[in-house]
Amino acid sequence: MNDYMVVKEKLRQYIIEATFSSKDEIKDDTLLFEEGLFDSMGLLFLIDFIRDEFLVETMDNELLVGNFASLTSISEFIIDKLKVKGVSKLVINHK
Asked: pTM for the full model?
């Protein structure tokens, strides 16, 4: 499984657990905020999860709808951040 798919599946699992949704409800293009799955507090918890799980910091200027609208956009955001950091192979932070 490539890094993008690993990130997407880790995110999907987090979203399912955080929102008490079923796997069928969380599609790649599900609009997380528009469909009421996340609110502003949910976004803060999601950002914490991204930092803890993928060691990716989210800056204030990156808090854009385009970066956090769906599972696909969040996964792309994380992979892009990892590329900028020069990470060539994803290492998941397991606590």
From this structure: 0.89
Cα(95)–Cα(83) distance, integer angstroms:
23
Q: What confidence tens digit (pLDDT) does each residue in 13-41 have?
A: 999 999 999 999 999 999 999 999 999 99
Q: How far apart are CA 87 and CA 18, in angstroms?
A: 27
CA 88 to each of CA 33, 81, 83, 93: distance values in angstroms, whole numbers, following the listed order: 31, 11, 7, 15
Structure tokens belonging to residue 16: 């399912």
Tens-place pLDDT, residues 39-52: 999 999 999 999 99
Q: Are residues 54 and 92 in contact, defined by beta-carbon separation less than 8 angstroms?
A: yes
Q: Is residue 94 part of a domain?
A: no
Q: Which two tokens stand for residue 88?
A: 């060539």
Q: CA–CA separation, 28 vs 85, rounded Å? A: 25
* CATH number of the domain where residue 12 is located: 1.10.1200.10
> Tokens 């808090």 sit at which residue?
63
